[in-house]
Amino acid sequence: MNILIDTHTLLWFLSNDVKLSEKAKKIIERTKNNVFVSIASFWEISIKLSLSKLILDIPFELLFDESEKLGIQILQIKKEHLIYLKELPFFHKDPFDRVIICQGIIENFLIISIDEKFDEYKVKRIW
Q: Which residues of the chain register pLDDT less than 70?
């Protein structure tokens, strides 16, 4: 199964945070699943770090390697995602989540997110 994890899901998984649901954790850890995180998540994290709205336990530069060591692949933004984004209704206003939603729809990925606003779109979300 192809899985796309939201930004908070990545951070909670990497830090073993209790806020991550057991169901989400098990799906991410299941080795037969292909787990992806959007490059938009790293963009969001870098902005939050620069605004001092987020503190990481590790240097930001290592976040990429740590994710990949755990088998989490980085999903780049494709032109198809942005073309779909142009027409995406504004149920959700967060620009990073909107990109993740488009990636989930276009790539037909299951999205792991606590954000119930994702349910307004044609995306499969679990938590």
A: none
Q: Quote the pTM value.
A: 0.94
The domain in which residue 38 lies consists of 2-126
DSSP 70: T
* DSSP secondary structure letter of residue 35: E
The amino acid sitting at 35 is: V
The number of angstroms, rounded, from the C-alpha of 108 to the middle of its chain's C-alpha atoms is: 14
Burial 12-42 (b: 16+ CB within 10 A, else e): bbbeeeeebeeebbebbeeeeeebbbbebbb
Mean pLDDT of the chain: 97
What residue has token string 């963009």?
43
Torsion of CA 106, 111, 117, 121, to 10 degrees: 30
Number of domains in the chain: 1
